[in-house]
Write a structure and sequence with these properties.
Layout lengths: L5 H26 L4 E4 L7 E7 L25 E18 L1 H6 L4 H33 L5 E4 L7 H8 L9 E6 L1 H9 L6 E6 L2 E6 L2 E6 L13 E7 L3 E5 L4 E7 L6 E14 L2 E3 L8 H4 L5 E3 L9 E6 L2
Parallel strand pairs: 1-10, 4-15, 5-8
Antiparallel strand pairs: 2-3, 3-12, 5-9, 6-7, 7-8, 9-15, 10-12, 11-12, 13-14
Helix pairs in contact: 1-3
Length: 318
């Protein structure tokens, strides 16, 4: 690999990464039935502010046709605001020696394929893990959206069904249950063996189980040993969790002298936004850390009813 090719190498690395990530996002969204929507449409600034009208169902009333007296109070047409927050991430630096490739008669195209694929998978994993951490924290803070298995676990389908029941007559709006691999296989052990695999990439798997998509991924937030609840399953509605890829991936490759052999390093910066249906992020917290993302107090429920939020949560100790 001639050193003069490094700038071209950087351009080649960027485009395959973006293309690979876009393809993975498209397949994942279709498989998860849109419960977790990984979007390639970003937003500027620290937050995305989205207004929606507040439900007006409470304006319904009974009328006495034989009573012409009296007055009624008006129901105000109001809007609620849901806030998404932008999160920053990095990848690398990855170090390699140009001489390594020429020594084994390889070329830069093969290095581009390896790095871009791993970079795209790392970004997608970060988007999913961070989004799930936010959703679990926000929902867990709402007692009306959670159910707790008082036994010793593991979570059963009955437990998950009880969580769905928190939505009452709107439970059909829940389209996907998100769990880790151990939870899924525990359900399989309970004779739930007929599952259709919809999507698989790296350490993420999406299946169909009893009419709902089952997203299987070992996201840290789904299994937190030593906390109030060790095992968690989050059940989401369509567009319950939206992760916006800001599309501002920045890659840089540079080659340095001064060592026994010439060394090249590659580094990348990227951002994405997290939004939850029915919740607003605390705008006093900018560029949050992992701990802040997973803090329920940073997410405020702005929807009137829990039925109009991202979903419900099943908890258990194991």
């Amino acid at each position: 690999m001639a050193l003069s090719n490094m700038k071209v190498f950087n351009e080649y690395l960027y485009n395959p990464t973006i293309e690979t990530l876009a393809q993975m996002v498209e397949k994942f969204n279709a498989a998860s039935r849109g419960a977790i929507r990984l979007s390639t449409e970003g937003f500027t600034g620290d937050f995305k502010l989205e207004a929606m009208f507040k439900a007006l169902h409470s304006a319904q009333r009974r009328v006495n046709r034989y009573n012409t007296n009296g007055s009624v109070s008006a129901t105000n047409l109001e809007q609620i605001q849901m806030n998404s927050v932008k999160v920053a991430g990095g990848f690398g630096p990855i170090a390699f020696e140009p001489g390594q490739l020429t020594w084994i008669l390889q070329n830069e195209a093969q290095a581009v394929e390896v790095i871009s694929r791993n970079l795209a998978e790392a970004i997608m994993r970060d988007m999913l893990n961070s989004g799930l951490a936010s959703a679990i924290a926000a929902i867990e803070a709402q007692t009306t959206a959670t159910t707790f298995d008082t036994g010793t676990g593991p979570i059963t389908l009955r437990d998950i069904n009880q969580a769905h029941a928190k939505f009452g007559d709107m439970s059909q709006a829940i389209v996907a249950d998100v769990m880790d691999g151990a939870t899924y296989h525990a359900l399989v052990d309970n004779a739930l063996a007929n599952a259709e695999r919809l999507f698989q990439s790296d350490n993420i798997m999406v299946l169909d189980l009893l009419g709902k998509a089952i997203v299987v991924t070992d996201a840290p937030a789904l299994r937190e040993t030593g906390t109030g609840a060790d095992q968690k399953v989050v059940s989401l509605v369509t567009d319950g969790l939206i992760v916006h890829d800001a599309g501002d991936l920045v890659t840089n490759i540079e080659t340095n002298n001064g060592k026994a052999r010439i060394e090249t390093t590659m580094q990348a910066d990227y951002t994405f936004g997290i939004g939850l249906k029915g919740y607003a992020w605390d705008t006093s917290v900018k560029s949050p850390t992992d701990a802040q993302i997973a803090t329920g107090g940073n997410w405020t429920k702005v929807a009137t009813s829990i039925k109009n939020t991202a979903g419900v949560l099943t908890l258990a100790n194991i």
